[in-house]
Every structure is written in structure tokens, then in C-alpha cells.
Amino acid sequence: MITLYGFGTGFGLPEISPFVTKTEVQLKMAGLPYRKERAMPPASPKGQLPFIDDGGEAVADSTFIRAHIERRYGFDFDAGLSLQERAQAWAFERMIEHHVYWALVGARWVDPINFAKGPSHFFDGAPEHNREKLREDAQFRVAENYLLSGLGRHAPDDDVDLAVRSLFALSVQLGDKAYLMGNKPCGVDATAFGALAGILTPFFESGLRQRAEGFPNLTAYVDRMMDNYYPEFAWTPLRQAA
Predict the structure, then answer these.
(1) Where are the domains of the chain?
(2) Cα distance between residue 19 and residue 16, in whole Å
(3) DSSP characters over 201-240
(4) H-type helices in the chain, by residue range?
(5) Distance from C-alpha of 190 to C-alpha of 25, rounded to nearest angstrom
(6) CATH among 3.40.30.10, 1.25.40.10, 3.30.160.70, 3.40.630.30 for 1-77
(7) How far apart are CA 194 and CA 189, in angstroms?
(8) pLDDT at 154
């Protein structure tokens, strides 16, 4: 059986990391049995989560895990899509992971109130004499990566404006369909759901979340995906929480 290593529940979500969420949803899409274990990034072959152990073979990075599932188990996450649609799905996935994701990082890690409420607690178990330094160092490293992503070079309102353009693109692509590429979920839906749920969780207050709530089809999409793939999780539908 596959073992999936992730952060676990938190921040009002069934899984803290959008990338772990992506892989977990894709495992469910593929109908593969798995068990889930908590881990921290240093345990991974690439120093990041998720990673899986599949019969003694460790595979890290959500995109490479998807490729592993497709290759080993013969599952096509984009079955039914044309070549053009597959290309579009890949482009949206890259936009989500290399643009929308970093806006989420800024809202969680750079905003001091949200950092104190959320990521700072990753270090609660550290020795007391070193705890605050570990928190400060981690926040600094993430903020540095946020800067290098490009979004962090702008004023807070400007980076949200840029992220909202990507959310608008997702909203237009979704339209009145159930899923991004049609009426059947495909690989990119796992990616989009992980990021959008991370932005829209009521746990954090942010300008990004407020702007994202202005796309009713995206909030309904997150509710739909949550109901489909995490029916056991105590999630208050966004249409009710608003």
C-alpha cells in the first residue's frame, strides 16, 4: 500500500499543504488505497512535502508523484481531454502553482497576524530557549522565497491585484461547469482545489481571501470538491459561511 507523507489537518483544512492536498485528491481520483502519515520536509528525499513510499520506492514532489501513478498504475488523470485541453490544463496548473500559490504563502507567512495564528505553531514543540529564533528564521526564509517569486516585490495590495487576475482566469475557465475542464474532474482540479481551499479557509483573514470570495463559482467549486473528496471532514460550506 502507498504511504502518503504530509502535514495533516490544520488551518480549518483536512490538509495544511495545497501540494499534499493535490496528491491526496489524485490518489482518491485514481482509486488507489493509501495510508497517510505526518512528516516534516527534512524527511523527504527532496526536502519538501508531499512524498510517497510505494513498495519501498520513495517519490517526492506532487507532479512527479502524479507521473509515478500514471506510469505504474496506468491511470490517466486527463482521460477524455483532447491534446489542446491537456495543454490548457497544464498551463492552468503552472499558473496555480507558480503564481496563485505564492499569493497564498504571502497571506499565511508574511502577514504577521496570520503567521502568529497559523505557521508559527509549527514550532510549538521546539525547545523553549530556541523556539522564537526558529520561528523568526523560518518566516524570514519563506519571506525571502516570496520575494524571489516576484509577488513579494510589490506592495501588499498590488500582489493581491495580480493574484486576483489569476483567480479571474480560473473563474472564467470554470464558468458554469462542475470542474475546470468539463463535467468530470481531472488532474488540474486537484491542484486548483488545494490552492483555492487554502485561500478560502475561514481560518485566516486576508485581502486575498476577501477578493476570492467575490467569485461565487470558485467558492461553490471548493465546496463541491470538499464534499466529493473529503466528505468526512467538518467543513462549513463557503456559501453558508459567507
Answers:
(1) 1-77, 81-242
(2) 9
(3) -TTS--HHHHHHTT-HHHHHHHHHHHHHH-TTS----HHH
(4) 18-29, 62-73, 83-95, 101-105, 112-117, 128-149, 156-174, 187-200, 207-212, 216-229, 238-241
(5) 6
(6) 3.40.30.10
(7) 8
(8) 84
Sequence letter at residue 38? R
Tell me what pLDDT residue 238 has: 79
How would you class 169 by CB atoms within 10 Å of its CB: exposed for 0-12, middle for 13-18, buried for 19 or more? middle
Task: Please give the average pLDDT of every successive group of 10 residues along the chain, which has 242 residues.
Answer: 97 97 98 96 95 97 98 97 98 96 94 94 91 92 86 82 96 98 97 98 96 97 97 84 54
**CATH 3.40.50.720 assigned to 81-242:** no
pLDDT in the model for residue 242: 52
Beta strands 34-38; 51-54: pairing state = unpaired
- Angstrom distance (rounded) from CA 48 to CA 45: 8
> CA geometry: angle at 151 spanning 150 and 154, to 5°?
105
pLDDT of residue 142: 84
